């Protein structure tokens, strides 16, 4: 199995306890172990996240192993009201080449979702998606965006500031009281260009783009990502340079390009251009400057609340829902592949489609790659994968956002995968204290070994934890930006 992983991980607590939550590891070679300690603040529902030193062992509830009466996550099929059993396959999806889709919040209203702490009920599988919401191009999901915005003055150097597409999330909206906390729950901004269907060019990248070789904004197993600028327009972009050594490497990159050509959604990074040379490919893509999601929330100056996690998770689920509507599996969802649009807002974009695959229900797909601690059981067991495979990864990411712990991380990759195939996890008593039952229920409906029992992205967006944001904001004394803007709008109408 071809796996990618970071430095040798160390589990949280004594080794060999499969139910103990393991601490999330960071990138880089043998960095000092850090943890995110979560404690209640004076603000109801608020969480304070600070960077700690070496992880200290804490006692957690004993893990329930397969066959025990009280497993840490539901083992049976959980049914969301309004869903029926059947094949989990979206209907009506076709080849895509429209403008970028803006995710609609109306499609994610809660519809009879079980209350917090509800016991799993034996019933039909969650496998089939709601046809009305999952069908590609469903009414209300797609909106045309305006003409692509380009900078009027060309950029002269690499240090030039990026476009102000994310500045809205950095300003207090009119009507916000001084000193009050405002959360921007709006949609992610679209790319500053129209959606494109890109063909690979064999000309030199330097003919049209100025790459900042010294400014590396990302990297991975493929190579590096550099800041770049389009010479003719001054448009700030990112250049992903992928080294290729074999014919298979080239086919993999072309597959990534073909998949990105299908994807036009505000929560998915957009492709602008592509070039091929003898030893590499260069993909020119949309540039965002907010950094990786987990780098952002682990900053010592950032105070994370459960409401923050709700907003981040909604955005992730919006992007994954669209992917699945287009019959695309990401297959490598992890914190490193989620970027923030800005350093203050809650908008994110999913990146890196290098391992993504086109899903064809009649052709059973198996894969043997991924990052160990985010792999679903069916990947570890080399079984068929489908849409629920991505949803498992969403569950792991959400667990980590809520707690700062990685639910399956072991001392070695082999131990990690053993925890995964046995679905050995629990809610660490210390770190999950004070978190809502809705949040725990959400995670429990994703980290289920039987893939047909996991919630789909659409069902996630209907879950009560991701809805009723005004009430959640009121409960935590945090005002949502959408509320403040609506108040201003209504006040202006009264004066007209």
TrEMBL record:
GO MF term (any one): ATP binding
Binding annotation for ATP: 240
Domain Protein kinase as annotated: residue spans: 211-466
PROSITE patterns according to UniProt: PROTEIN_KINASE_ATP, PROTEIN_KINASE_DOM, PROTEIN_KINASE_ST
GO cellular component, one term: nucleus
Positions with biased composition (Basic and acidic residues): 147-159
Keyword Nucleotide-binding listed: yes
Region (Disordered): 1-183
Ranges in a coiled coil: none
InterPro entries, sorted: Kinase-like_dom_sf, Prot_kinase_dom, Protein_kinase_ATP_BS, Ser/Thr_kinase_AS
GO biological process: intracellular signal transduction; positive regulation of apoptotic process
Positions with biased composition (Low complexity): 105-121
Classification via SUPFAM superfamilies: Protein kinase-like (PK-like)
Keyword check for Transferase: yes
Residue stretches of biased makeup (Polar residues): 32-42
Keyword annotations of the record: ATP-binding, Kinase, Nucleotide-binding, Serine/threonine-protein kinase, Transferase
Record field: compositional bias (Pro residues): 8-17
Family from the record: Belongs to the protein kinase superfamily. CAMK Ser/Thr protein kinase family.
Name the record gives this protein: Protein kinase domain-containing protein
Species of the source: Propithecus coquereli
């Amino acid at each position: 199995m071809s796996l990618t992983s970071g430095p040798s991980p160390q589990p949280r607590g004594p080794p060999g306890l499969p139910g103990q939550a393991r601490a999330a590891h960071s990138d880089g070679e043998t960095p000092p172990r850090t943890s995110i300690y979560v404690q209640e603040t004076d603000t109801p529902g608020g969480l304070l996240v600070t960077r700690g030193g070496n992880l200290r062992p804490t006692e957690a509830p004993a893990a329930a192993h397969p066959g025990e009466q009280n497993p840490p996550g539901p083992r049976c099929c959980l049914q969301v009201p309004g869903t029926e059993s059947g094949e989990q396959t979206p209907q009506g999806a076709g080849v895509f080449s429209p403008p970028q889709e803006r995710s609609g919040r109306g499609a994610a209203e809660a519809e009879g979702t079980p209350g917090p702490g509800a016991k799993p009920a034996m019933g039909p599988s969650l496998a089939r998606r709601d046809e009305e919401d999952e069908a590609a191009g469903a009414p209300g999901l797609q909106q045309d965006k305006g003409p692509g915005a380009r900078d009027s003055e060309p950029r002269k150097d690499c240090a030039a500031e990026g476009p102000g597409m994310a500045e809205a999330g950095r300003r207090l909206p009119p009507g916000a009281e001084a000193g009050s906390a405002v959360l921007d729950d709006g949609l992610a901004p679209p790319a500053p260009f129209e959606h494109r269907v890109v063909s690979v060019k064999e000309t030199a990248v330097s003919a049209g783009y100025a790459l900042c070789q010294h400014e590396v904004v990302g990297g991975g197993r493929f190579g590096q990502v550099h800041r770049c600028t389009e010479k003719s327009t001054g448009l700030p972009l990112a250049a992903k340079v992928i080294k290729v050594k074999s014919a298979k490497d080239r086919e993999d990159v072309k597959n990534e390009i073909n998949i990105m050509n299908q994807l036009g959604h505000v929560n998915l990074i957009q492709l602008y251009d592509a070039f091929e040379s003898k030893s590499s490919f260069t993909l020119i893509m949309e540039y965002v400057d907010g950094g990786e999601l987990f780098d952002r929330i682990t900053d010592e100056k950032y105070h994370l609340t459960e409401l923050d996690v709700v907003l981040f998770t909604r955005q992730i689920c919006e992007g994954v829902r669209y992917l699945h509507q287009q019959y695309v599996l990401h297959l490598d969802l992890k914190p490193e592949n989620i970027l923030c649009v800005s350093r203050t807002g809650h908008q994110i974009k999913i990146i890196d489609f290098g391992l993504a695959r086109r899903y064809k229900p009649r052709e059973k797909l198996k894969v043997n790659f991924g990052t160990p601690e985010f792999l679903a059981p069916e990947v570890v067991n080399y079984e068929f994968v489908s849409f629920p495979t991505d949803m498992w990864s969403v569950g792991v990411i959400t667990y980590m956002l809520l707690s700062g712990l990685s639910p399956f991380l072991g001392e070695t990759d082999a131990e990690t995968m053993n925890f995964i195939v046995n679905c050995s996890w629990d809610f660490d008593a210390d770190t999950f204290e004070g978190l809502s039952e809705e949040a725990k229920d959400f995670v429990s409906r994703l980290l289920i070994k039987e893939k047909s029992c996991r919630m789909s992205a659409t069902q996630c967006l209907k879950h009560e934890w991701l809805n009723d944001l005004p009430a959640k904001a009121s409960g935590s004394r945090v005002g949502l930006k959408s509320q403040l803007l609506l108040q201003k709008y209504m006040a202006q109408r009264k004066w007209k």
